[in-house]
Amino acid sequence: MKKDLKRKRSIALVPEYVFESYLYVRPEFLKSLGIRALLIDIDNTLAPYEQDLPDENIINWFSEMKKAGISCALISNNDHTRVELFNSLLSLPAYAKSGKPGKKTLLRAMRDMGVDETVTAGLGDQLLTDTLAVHKLGMISIIVPPINDKRTLFFRFKRRIERPFMIKYYKRKAKANKK
Known about the structure:
Layout: H1 2-11, E1 17-18, H2 27-32, E2 37-40, H3 56-67, E3 71-75, H4 80-87, E4 94-95, H5 104-113, E5 120-124, H6 127-135, E6 140-143, H7 153-178
Parallel strand pairs: 1-6, 2-3, 2-5, 3-4, 5-6
C-alpha cells in the first residue's frame, strides 16, 4: 500500500507534455486530446514577471485559441493588480491569488467556463504548483520552461525539487519514442 501511494505522489509531479514555449501549444494538438478548455498560468509561462501587458504574440495566440473553440482562463498565484493589468487587453476569465496547488480556483474557473476536468488541461511553468494542481483533478498538465526564472534561493530550491520529475518525463518520452 505505501509503495503504491509513493508511486502516485511521484506521478503527480510528472507532466504529460512539455513544450519549448506556450506558442507551440496549438489548438489542433489540444483538440486531438479532446481538450476544449485551458487553464493558464501567467508569470514565466506567458510572460516574465516584469512584463505588465501581453505582447502581440500572446494576443494572437489567444485569438487562435478562441477561433478554434478552445476556452481559456488565466489562473495565477500573483496578486489582483498584476492579473487585472495583464488581462486588460485579453478580457479572459482571470483568477488571482489562486492558491495553486490547491484546486478550489481551478474548479471555480471550470464551472464559470461551463466545462469539467475531462475536457480541460492546465498550462504552466512549475510542477509544484501548476502540474500538481491540475493532477489533483485528474487533468492533463502541459509545462513550458520558465521564461525568466527568478534566481532567489526559494525558486532555486523549487527547481531542484522539480528536476527528478522532469528527468522522469524525458525518460518516459524516450521510451515511448522507441516503440
